[in-house]
User: What shape does this take?
Amino acid sequence: MLDVSDGVTLSSILDYWAVPYSESSGREVGLFTGGQGSRGSQNLLELDAALTVESLLDPYAQDWANNNEGFTPFLQPSSPPVAVPSEQISLDTLGGMGSGGQLVTVQPAGSETRITPRAPGRYFGPLPAAKQWQLLTQTVSATPTNRARTTLGVGEEVDVYLYSPYTSPYDPVPPNWSTNVSWTTTAGSVSPLTGGSTGLTAPSNAASVTVTMHYNTVAFSTNFTVVEPTTVVCAVTVGRTYFDIGQAGAGMHITPYVGPTNVSFYQVQLMEVGQPATDVQGYFLDLAHPAPPHDYASKADHFDIQLGYDNSWPANYDWATSGVYPSPYSQGSFTWHIPAKWKVGSGPTNDLAGSWDQVFTLAPDGTVTVQKFNHTVTRHVNEHYGVVIPDP
Assistant: This one.
């Protein structure tokens, strides 16, 4: 029996056994992306592949004739093992791995792509590893409770993360290649412009917005719809105005809410627009006690209504309250018709789609009623506070 330790070569072994030989092996590797294939449905994948150089002769090749356990390769891993440089590894048509050792690609859901590792010379290695990454979105505002929503209010802020389903959704660990990631948006602004996450500030007017992650030639996007405030959709009465006994007047403290309420308008400032009184009747036609206008002194014409995260007006702001009307009393009424404007920061000023009325009524006995946002307060001259419907 030949001893390779005496310098016997593979060719001499084969000459000794007088048999022709060849050694070859190969495999084709496919990647199937799960999910229902549909237009716009994409998977962001990180692929890793490692190959080892195969270059040493099996020292026991001369024993093959006596080996009944099956075929053993002629070539063995280098000792110590030598890795194929990642720059020399490609995954079929997806291209090269690059110096970072990863290949990032976007593939349609429900598709199959060949990712067979290939490199110059002889090599072997395990199957490529595939890790899915997604873009997680989380609104800064905790109201509404669905913070993963992609419908936003004007000016609303939302964080956009690269994350893997195998990490905690709200504590994402960005991939090591994210240092080479950049971000763009079609409207509004994003900051920072690089890294594993960014923050989108929605534009100050309605828009469709696409935020895109860029890595080398790969682009992966998520879409948002930005909506504008429409009108006051509801209100709650939280208090009543105090008057001295014998005075004719009434008032209530209201907290209105702006819609739509499936988004947050905490970046929006609102202004009631001042106008003269309309529908003036009876008592208020007398120049001794004319119907007052809705003006700056009545909190009109200045942007001091900063909406909250729940789209509410500021606390202790909207007091729908009459003045104190002098006797003698008679039947009379007037209306403030109130349009409104809104803006985001230093952005453009816009007309609010909806408007509302504030109606004041005086009865001959000095009873005063004030109505606003479907709430009514009625007070008699012998009461300190009126009665509110709905009751606060």
Summary: Residues 57 and 309 are 71 Å apart (CA to CA). Residues 232-389 form one domain.
